[in-house]
Amino acid sequence: MNTRKSSRSAIGAALILVLVTGMAVPAPADKQPPTKPSNLNVTGTTPWSVSLAWSASSDNSGQLTYRVVCSNGQSVNVPQSATSVTFTAGLQHKGTYSFFVCAFDAAGNNSKSSNTVGATLPADTIAPSAPVITATNVGPAHIALSWSATDNGSPLIYKLFKDGVLVGQPGSATSTTIYLLAPETTYTFTAQARDNAGNWSPLSAPFAVTTTAPDLSDTTPPTAPSGLWGGPYADGSVEFNLNWTPSTDDVTPQQYIVYDLYVNGVWTGVSVGTPHISEYGVFGDNFIELIAKDQAGNESVAASVSFFIP
Questions:
Q1: Which of 10, 144, 218, 270 has its CB 3.0 to 4.6 Å from that of 136, i.e. a possible disulfide?
Q2: pLDDT of the residue at 5
Q3: Positive or negative, the Cα torsion across 227, 233, 234, 239?
Q4: 148: burial class by Cβ within 10 Å (0-12, 13-18, 19+)?
Q5: Is residue 218 part of a domain?
Q6: Which of 213, 93, 238 has the alpha carbon at shortest distance from 153?
């Protein structure tokens, strides 16, 4: 069979189709992969990163993306304009890892993999810096704080102390709001940071904040909580869940409105700013009351709901 003649016939038929019907002939699918990246090498390490570089690939489409793959199961994509990357995903100090690079084009064609290189990260013996604390909002009964520290690459865990007492549990959060404080009272906060290698920073400098005085001209109570509903969990206990539509106030923002909860006439809990709470009742009949209170101490009319815990 004359393949050249057959090819010319196919082209001719396509041209006739275009001339007769005006329909464009689809371009053939791109099935050609990029050339493989080469000369992958390690250019540097820290306790939490590996820096890599390689020689560029090419593709018939002119466009491609690199994928850097680590033996820990993580990978990152790198644009065509770069032939280096500092890899951090999932790396731990003192760990040993291997890497390779491949390229892929917009049609999904993947190149062959580059050579594989390995690296062992050094131990992290450097502690984070002492955190710096700032106040972002202060009211008669709340203080909003944020804090930060620097480190040589590890994610950080923080501890926050109020007057020397730990607030909550250590975590990665870098801000919080402390509620239910006394007006015109000074509180002192400190913080400490820890990296994933277990290095603790020095304790931060003490940060003192004084709550403001309540607005004595504010005599209007918040609106009563509406849509109050709830009931027991289906686990055979006396714990129940309560939800409502948030109250509003002419002075106090919604996120600082306090909700006092009473179960069968006894105060049992409080929620600040959030329209839900879990609490414990008694087996049998439960009469629930919820009262909203603003920062000046004005209390709303009580909302109520009753339910039976079997």
A1: 144
A2: 44
A3: negative
A4: middle
A5: no
A6: 93
